[in-house]
Amino acid sequence: MGLQLIALVVAALAGLAMAVQGTLNTALSKITGLLEATFIVQAVAAFAAGMLLFGFGLGEGNVTAIVKAPWYTWLGGAIGVAITYGVVYAMQKAGVASATTAIIVGQILTAALIDHLGILGMERIPFPWWKVIGLALVAVGARILLAQ
Predict the structure, then answer these.
(1) 76-94 vs 96-117: helix axis angle to the nearest 10?
(2) What would the pLDDT profile of 98-131 be if each residue is shown by its tens digit?
(3) Is the dihedral of CA 65, 67, 70, 73 positive or negative?
(4) pTM, full prediction
(5) Which of 37, 108, 111, 121 would be a feasible disulfide site paired with 28, CB 3.0-4.6 Å?
(6) How far apart are CA 17 and CA 59, in angstroms?
């Protein structure tokens, strides 16, 4: 199996985990509240990552090298809070399948733009017209899935 195929399988598994995570986070928010659940989720994530990094030594580099990273790369944590909050809110109001469909469409649109423009330090990957057609088909499929 090629490395790209392995990466895509890992991505698909991450997508599966995101749907389960969003569902679990939504259940937690019904007990604790939306912002409270967002805080708990981020705290548990920080603890789990800390255990893997410091407790089990599974890191690949040097965490202190963060001081060399551009300032905007630090925004991922804050964006993670917004993602958790937004996913839980959407799943509570629209359901897991509808919210996940909207999330995927948003991810694809943003990813295509990032690739095409090569922004945020990513390699530029052109987005030709035939991929635009594919993206349009995804959007139409999403609309069909979201129809009541």
Answers:
(1) 150
(2) 888 889 889 988 999 999 999 988 999 998 999 8
(3) positive
(4) 0.83
(5) 37
(6) 21
